[in-house]
Amino acid sequence: MAPAASPLVWAPEVWWELFQHFLAWSLMSIGGAITLVSDMHRRLVTDAALLTDENFTAAIALAQAAPGPNVLFVGLIGWYSAGLGGALTSLIGIMIPSSTLALTASRWVASRRDWLGVQAFQSGMTPVTIGLLLATGWLLAPSAQHPAALLLSAAVALLVWRTKIPLIALVGVGAVLGALGWV
To answer: Computed from CA positions of residues 44, 48, 53, 58, in that sequence, does the dihedral angle turn out positive or negative?
Structure first.
């Protein structure tokens, strides 16, 4: 894995580029910033080469493993791209518009819950969010995984959906299987 950018790197042009990208993604991140990982990867790794594929994946893995909001990976992507300034501009870009819009929209929806259009919109956003999450999972799934990994993932999804087995128990089973080298 390539090392992270120096925290004191002076790169205002990269900061501005990161800010603009995350500002736009902020307003498209239905279901959270994690739903746009595939587009972030395409733009920041493949097109602009602001960070390596390894750093991109490491940023997401580290942020998802750490306690706190799942949007932390945005700060790490900014850090790997352009140090502390990149982390700050990325986080500001992703947080300000979506937070403002979410607050405004939630207040508006709360006062109009019984409207058919509001109910239809909320129902329609569910498959969009699920599709974006599936795209993220597909991108982050390593291609060299054990063949049983997809089957195990489907089984866990089915168990979560159809039973009352606590999710943390299934995560624990997955951790044990991973530690034993089975998946």
So the answer is: negative
Rounded CA-CA distance 70/81 in Å is 19
Check residue 67 and report its DSSP letter.
Answer: S
Structure tokens at 30: 């239905």
d(CA 69, CA 146): 30
Q: At CA 128, angle to CA 102 and CA 164, rounded to 5?
A: 90
pTM: 0.60
Closest CA to 63 of 89, 82, 91: 91
Distance from CA of residue 122 to its chain's centroid? 21
Q: Which of 26, 20, 22 is nearest to 76 (CA)?
A: 22
Q: At what angle do helices 72-110 and 53-65 cross, to 10 degrees?
A: 60
What pLDDT sits at residue 5? Answer: 57
Give the chain's length: 183
Where do the domains of the chain lie? 12-140, 143-183
Report yes or no: 27 and 97 within 8 Å, Cβ to Cβ. Answer: yes
CB atoms < 10 A from the CB of 57, how many? 18
The Cα 26–Cα 28 span in angstroms is 5
Q: What is the pLDDT of residues 120-138, one digit of tens each?
A: 998 998 888 888 877 877 7
Mean per-residue pLDDT for 144-160?
A: 74
From the list 58, 20, 57, 29, the residue with the least C-alpha distance to 139 is 57
